[in-house]
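Consider today's protein:

***
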Amino acid sequence: MNVRIHPSWKSELDTEFEKDYFKELIGFVKQEYSEHKCFPPGSEIFAAFDHSVFQDTRVVILGQDPYHGIDQANGLCFSVRDGITFPPSLINIFKEIQNDLGKPLPSTGNLERWADQGVLLLNATLTVRAHQAGSHQNKGWEKFTDQVIKLISEKKENVVFMLWGGYAKKKAKLIDASKHLILTSGHPSPLSANRGYWFGNSHFSKANDYLVSKGKKQIDW
């Protein structure tokens, strides 16, 4: 499994990689990938940590599980590969950006363009078995990604955390609200969005306003 991860994250997470739970987790993941079709491809499991350099990370968006359909997941939460039909949640994200910032809907759902600007697109669980949502939950990934959130909170300042939906909102307790901006709303899934819990949250303009106020470059959403 040829994993790609930026050196800036590797040095920050080295001690985590050495812990027993993480070694057990990787053993589980390797076995799953050898016996079943799993996503994302092995080389992209840590894609969120390869595109968004630790020092440059300015925004964190938290998802729950990778997409489990063929050729969808690319290691970034809510993102799909070029040429793949936009999943419903991603359509609603783009619609909110259109409403909030007046930007047209993009031609691709590949969010690498955000990640390369310092948006950490982090799923709580980094792998999944094909067509089996949640199949790799409670195996250790959540422990690891909770540590990532704590690390960012402790070692960085003025980061925007976007927590969408009940699961993500629970992660607020890991973040120091005195030195970061925490934005919460309903999930962009149709079930939540159609009940009025998503549209109009203006998270993308709020994030940019905050970053500019802290002397940081805004994100081109």
